[in-house]
């Protein structure tokens, strides 16, 4: 998964780094060039001074009048050198500072204009300028050299200093960038938090965004949540109407079949069978279609209230049985889903319990970090282990005489499956059946596999 | 026992009415919510069988309105809506029982008589029994003090059942007529006298006492 923040910061670092390197390179090139130009200019003016001091000595040779020559040229290895040659003679005249060295006539790296060369002389950089003059009708070739190692040292010192400054600058910029990006993405981060709350059922709608870029996203999500809710309600209503529309004629049909059974039992039998199948199919599919599942975010149904209502209903339905129906719900437990699903789930579990119980049915609800656990126990005859698996199967009935038993369980299984939960059947302490349902509190927690029993 | 049957299906309604009448009830059939609510306020019904999906006014709203106005008419909801949430809503609205379509008439009749027994605080599941007098609702016969079952005619059965549901209460002739016959039948309250007379022959004179100018009292 890519992070916008990391990408923005990464791109910023790369771009700034490239720019800084270019700046640094061009700046140091420019500085060096300036220094060389400066040295070259001083060498040029130096050349004119030297030209003046070149004179013919008494025996027709050429010499430098030391009077005009700067003392640096007199001091050996002072860093300032010259040598010259007059006319066609092959003899070079050297400054004293050269000692027994000479300035290379060729080679080296050309720098700038004016035939300036950078020559490596025993590991020291010399900047060499060559000039050609005409003196008393003769060509005079002059080479001047300056040791620029102090310039190089200065430049490299400057380079390091600059590097440090640039690094510091980069760090500060990056920090500023991170802060800017983070505050810019703040509304996205906020929306992410709100989405989590929506998923957990804390809120039913996202609050309005304060950023123009995020606002359409929030509006769209809210619209989707709302339209999903509306669609669910609508399809529920449509199903209710369909059920009503279909079941009433089915009731009429059943009555006709019963009437027919009085006269011709052998003809009524198959009809009755078909009608029963149709009825069960319809009941099952309608109930299945009603399950909303975990698709809808933003839901939280507090258990106690729903369980209380359901128990009142069951006590009314099973009034004549005189059952003790008890509930033990941890306070604050909630169902992370849709109310009708919860009621359908618990209704079927409790109804099953009530059908089989002798005296007592109980429901227990617990919630921890990961999931909600609901257990319904009865003190009835229970179910043999090998038959429990079958009961979980769709529509399988263990006892035909108590209608709807298997159907109820298969609906329970269906709802639990839609929520990514787990349904287990085992023996209650009193020998009856205990049905436990575990439902994850958030999407992404998978409970469908049985964890290793401790 | 007079029953208000609220069912909008044009086939099921009349058929159910016939079958309930065969089960010994005086039945008035209403096919919409507004008429149903109005009829419920008349103090002549012992029980209402209420469908939920009604034209003009939903059955649940009818029931809620009755209960809001402290109308304690026992109500059995008979509906195609079978989800648990709908059942819970039905009971929370004040229903006394809830039966899902499709259903068998026998089950409806059994639920109705159980509901009536419960309303009149008679416990036990095997028929109506008051101080040695036992009414068999299936065969519509009566057994007095463990003797032989005596068959009753339709009206005798209805009269005796109503009396047994209201022991010790003074019941006027008009009241008896209201609870024994539906709207369709024009009845002179004098026929009640004749039926009381015939019933006395079958269960013993002393059980039904005449209060001059007031009516009859069933003596348990």
Automatic annotation (TrEMBL), chain A:
Keyword flag ATP-binding: yes
GO molecular function terms here?
Answer: protein histidine kinase activity
Q: Which UniProt keywords apply?
A: ATP-binding, Kinase, Membrane, Nucleotide-binding, Phosphoprotein, Transferase, Transmembrane, Transmembrane helix, Two-component regulatory system
Fetch the SMART domains from UniProt.
HATPase_c
What are the residue boundaries of the HAMP domain, all occurrences included? 182-233
In the UniProt record, the signal sequence range is none
Q: Where in the cell is it found?
A: Membrane
For this entry, the protein name equals histidine kinase
UniProtKB/TrEMBL annotation, chain B:
One GO BP annotation here? Answer: regulation of DNA-templated transcription
Kindly give the CDD domains that the UniProt entry links to this protein.
Answer: trans_reg_C
Q: Domain named OmpR/PhoB-type: which ranges?
A: 125-220
Domain of life assignment = Bacteria
Q: Which UniProt keywords apply?
A: DNA-binding, Phosphoprotein, Transcription, Transcription regulation, Two-component regulatory system
UniProt GO cellular component terms: cytosol; protein-DNA complex
Give the source lineage, highest ranks first: Bacteria, Pseudomonadati, Pseudomonadota, Gammaproteobacteria, Oceanospirillales
Q: Where is the Response regulatory domain?
A: 2-116
The modified positions for 4-aspartylphosphate read 51
Protein name stated in the entry: DNA-binding response regulator
What is the source species?
Marinobacterium nitratireducens
* Keyword Transcription on entry: yes
């Amino acid at each position: 998964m890519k992070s916008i923040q990391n990408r923005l910061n990464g791109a910023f670092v790369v771009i700034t780094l490239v720019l800084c390197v270019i700046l640094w390179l061009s700046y140091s090139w420019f500085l060096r060039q300036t220094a060389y130009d400066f040295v070259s200019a001083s060498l040029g003016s130096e050349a004119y001074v030297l030209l003046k001091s070149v004179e013919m000595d008494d025996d027709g040779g050429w010499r430098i009048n030391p009077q005009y020559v700067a003392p640096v040229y007199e001091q050996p290895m002072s860093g300032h050198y010259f040598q010259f040659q007059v006319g066609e003679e092959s003899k070079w005249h050297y400054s004293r500072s050269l000692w027994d060295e000479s300035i290379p006539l060729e080679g080296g790296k050309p720098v700038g204009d004016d035939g300036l060369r950078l020559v490596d002389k025993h590991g020291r950089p010399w900047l060499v300028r060559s000039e050609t003059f005409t003196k008393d009708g003769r060509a005079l070739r002059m080479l001047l050299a300056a040791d620029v190692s102090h310039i190089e040292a200065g430049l490299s010192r400057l380079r390091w200093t600059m590097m440090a400054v640039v690094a510091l600058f980069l760090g500060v910029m990056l920090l500023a960038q991170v802060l800017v990006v983070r505050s810019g993405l703040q509304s996205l981060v906020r929306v992410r938090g709100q989405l989590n709350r929506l998923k957990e059922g804390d809120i039913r709608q996202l609050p309005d965004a304060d950023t123009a870029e995020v606002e359409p996203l929030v509006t769209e999500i809210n619209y989707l949540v709302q339209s999903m809710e509306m669609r669910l309600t609508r399809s529920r209503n449509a199903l209710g109407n369909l059920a009503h529309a279909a079941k009433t004629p089915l009731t009429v049909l059943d009555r006709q079949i019963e009437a027919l059974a009085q006269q011709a039992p052998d003809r009524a039998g198959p009809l009755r069978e078909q009608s029963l199948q149709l009825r069960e199919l319809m009941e099952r599919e309608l109930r299945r279609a009603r399950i909303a599942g975990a698709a809808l975010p933003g839901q939280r149904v507090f258990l106690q209230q729903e369980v209380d209502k359901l128990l009142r209903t069951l006590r009314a339905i099973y009034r004549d049985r005189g059952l003790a129906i008890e509930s033990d719900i941890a306070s604050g437990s909630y169902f992370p889903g849709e109310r009708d699903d919860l009621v359908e789930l618990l209704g079927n579990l409790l109804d099953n319990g009530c059908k089989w119980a002798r005296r007592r049915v109980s429901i227990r609800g617990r919630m921890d970090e990961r999931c909600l656990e609901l257990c319904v126990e009865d003190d009835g005859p229970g179910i043999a282990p090998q038959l429990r698996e079958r009961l979980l199967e769709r529509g399988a009935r263990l006892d035909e005489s108590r209608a709807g038993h298997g159907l109820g369980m298969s609906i329970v299984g269906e709802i639990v499956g839609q929520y990514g939960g787990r349904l287990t059947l085992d023996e209650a302490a009193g020998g009856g059946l205990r049905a436990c349902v575990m439902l994850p509190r958030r999407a992404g927690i998978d409970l469908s596999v049985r964890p290793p029993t401790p | 026992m007079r029953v208000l049957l609220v069912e909008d299906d044009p086939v099921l309604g009349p058929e159910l009415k016939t079958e309930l009448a065969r089960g010994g009830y005086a039945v008035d059939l209403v096919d919409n919510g507004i008429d149903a609510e109005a009829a419920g306020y008349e103090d002549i019904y012992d029980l209402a069988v209420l469908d939920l999906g009604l034209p003009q006014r939903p059955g649940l709203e009818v029931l809620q309105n009755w209960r809001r106005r402290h109308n304690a008419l026992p109500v059995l909801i008979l509906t195609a809506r079978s989800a648990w949430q709908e059942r819970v809503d039905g009971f929370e609205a004040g229903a006394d029982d809830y039966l899902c379509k499709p259903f068998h008439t026998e089950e409806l009749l059994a639920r109705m008589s159980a509901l009536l027994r419960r309303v009149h605080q008679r416990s036990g599941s095997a028929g109506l029994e008051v101080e040695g007098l036992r009414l068999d609702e299936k065969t519509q016969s009566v057994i007095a003090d463990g003797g032989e079952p005596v068959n009753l005619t339709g009206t005798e059965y209805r009269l005796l059942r109503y009396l047994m549901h209201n022991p010790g209460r003074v019941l006027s002739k008009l009241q008896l007529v209201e609870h024994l016959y539906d709207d369709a039948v024009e009845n002179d309250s004098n026929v009640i006298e004749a039926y009381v007379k015939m019933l006395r022959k079958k269960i013993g004179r002393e059980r039904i006492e005449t209060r001059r100018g007031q009516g009859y009292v069933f003596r348990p």
